[in-house]
């Protein structure tokens, strides 16, 4: 008995969809595993005086990532018979971190539509964009670095910015920004004859401990995403006030100390599916076009 060609095409299309779903889930598992590995690397490399509260913040993110990893797991029968993965039960015996997260989520649900306001109010206010612009206007690169050091010290943030050694006669300068034990950012600056920053020709972000050329990209998707966002931030600062470009960029980058601890201001979640390219990510978009900086998932802003 000859099968209907339309049925054959439909069966082939269904199998294609199943294979695509399998590929997506495998990639997601790989990326979550990579993210968890990176967080453990951060925790293991932290200096002894920096443990404590920061350790607990990173541990919360790690546990959240493990929960997401469990939900991404597939049974072989489900893969063969269904086009979508079956959601697994939540982890048994929740840790205090999980219980605390669920209690916070329940309280936020009880507040109806006041969720975003409450979270926004819990974030540190910091300086406004106008204050930063005034403080850093028309400063040389070295003067900007000194002012930024004082700003971070007074704010109690473990963020440092310094020059990368090079030839002082060249019209470029490379700045390394060490953001706690979370990540490192490199800025390639074009400077004038008075050693003031004229433009940022490249900005790239790496995970803490990554040893990669500044002309390459990070091996971690989360930092690739932040590099893209940082390029947009630099373009914004240039158009708004080019004379305070370096200072504004450094102050903005400093907020990423909370990358693995602060939830999204809008959805109150930490991990969220970004795209097929970037998979699950924490809130990587720290606003640069608002009076104060707040963390969001990029899709939560659309």
UniProtKB/TrEMBL annotation:
Tell me where the signal peptide lies: none
* Main location (coarse class): nucleus
Q: Name one GO cellular component term.
A: mediator complex
GO MF, one annotated term: transcription coactivator activity
- InterPro entries the record matches: Mediator_Med27
- Where in the cell is the protein located? Nucleus
Q: Which UniProt keywords apply?
A: Nucleus, Transcription, Transcription regulation
Write down the Pfam families for this protein, in alphabetical order. Med27
Q: Write out the biased-composition intervals (Basic and acidic residues).
A: 106-118
Locate the region Disordered.
Answer: 106-127
Q: Name one GO biological process term.
A: regulation of transcription by RNA polymerase II
Task: List, alphabetically, the PANTHER family matched.
Answer: 34 KDA TRANSCRIPTIONAL CO-ACTIVATOR-RELATED, MEDIATOR OF RNA POLYMERASE II TRANSCRIPTION SUBUNIT 27
**What's the family?**
Belongs to the Mediator complex subunit 27 family.
This chain belongs to which protein, by name? Mediator of RNA polymerase II transcription subunit 27
Give the organism the record lists: Podila minutissima
